[in-house]
Amino acid sequence: MVEITENGKMALKLIFTDFLANYNSYNLKDKIGLSNAGSLKLLRSLHEKNLLISQKMGNATFYKTNLKNGYLIKLLELIFLDNSNLPNFVKGWIYDLGSLMPHTKAILLFGSVLRKSKKARDIDVCLILKKHENYKLLQEMIKEMNEQTRLKLHPLYLTEKDFKIKLMEKDEPLIEIVKNCIVVHGQELFVEVLQNVQSK
């Protein structure tokens, strides 16, 4: 069992989801709220635990997640499963979105609700369909939910194949969603797709 701090989990999550960027201690520190020395120590520690791989570019050392490490993949799934630090308002929406789980492979909550909580104007959600036929059923379910709530759900529907292809094509809106979302459901699929995209 490898001991990982909360800052370590934040760093792994960020480097894994923001996979088009190159992270070193300098550009990681502000995102996690560490000093340059603290950031450097954290990255070296994660590297020593075989969770990150390093690459020298000039005088700087940049880090990527070690996607060949099976332990890291399981750890990432657990990191995306943990929503305990979220505001109760967001947790309420996670609970409400649970009704859509039987018809989806994954549910990603993103947008203003994660930044503004109760002050958000709508709820952005990406639904990875189980089957193409689930589209109409989910539309009906979301229509019903929207009739009962103050904030309206704005869904983005994708198949698993769409999700993979758009990430491979570096689709900017989807990359932004992946970097900033909460994985409500389908953590294994989410991690697997991102792992596959980055391994190509």
**Unreliable residue runs:** none
Rg, Å, rounded:
18 Å
Any guess at the CATH architecture of the largest domain? Answer: 2-Layer Sandwich
SS element count, helices: 10
User: Looking at CATH, which topology of the largest domain would you report?
Assistant: Beta Polymerase, domain 2
- Main sheet: strand order: 5-4-3-6
Structural class: alpha+beta
- Under CATH at level 1, the class of the largest domain stands as Alpha Beta
Helix/strand order, N-terminal first: HHHEEHHEHEHEHHEH
Mean pLDDT: 94
Total number of distinct structural domains: 2
Strand content: 15-25%
Rough outline: globular
- How many distinct beta strands? 6
Helical content band: 40-55%
| Main pleated-sheet profile | 4 strands, mixed
Query: What is the terminal separation in angstroms?
Result: 29 Å
Keywords:
single chain; 200 residues; alpha+beta; Arc Repressor Mutant, subunit A; 2 domains
Written description of the protein model:
The chain has 200 residues and is an alpha+beta fold. The protein has 2 domains: 6-74, Winged helix-like DNA-binding domain superfamily/Winged helix DNA-binding domain (Arc Repressor Mutant, subunit A), CATH 1.10.10; 85-199, Beta Polymerase, domain 2 (2-Layer Sandwich), CATH 3.30.460. Helix content is 53%, strand content 19%. The protein contains 10 helices and 6 strands; from the N terminus they run H-H-H-E-E-H-H-E-H-E-H-E-H-H-E-H. The protein has helices spanning 6-17, 25-32, 36-48, 70-81, 88-97, 112-116, 134-148, 160-168, 172-180, 187-199; strands at 52-57, 60-65, 104-110, 122-129, 152-158, 182-185. 28% of the residues are buried.
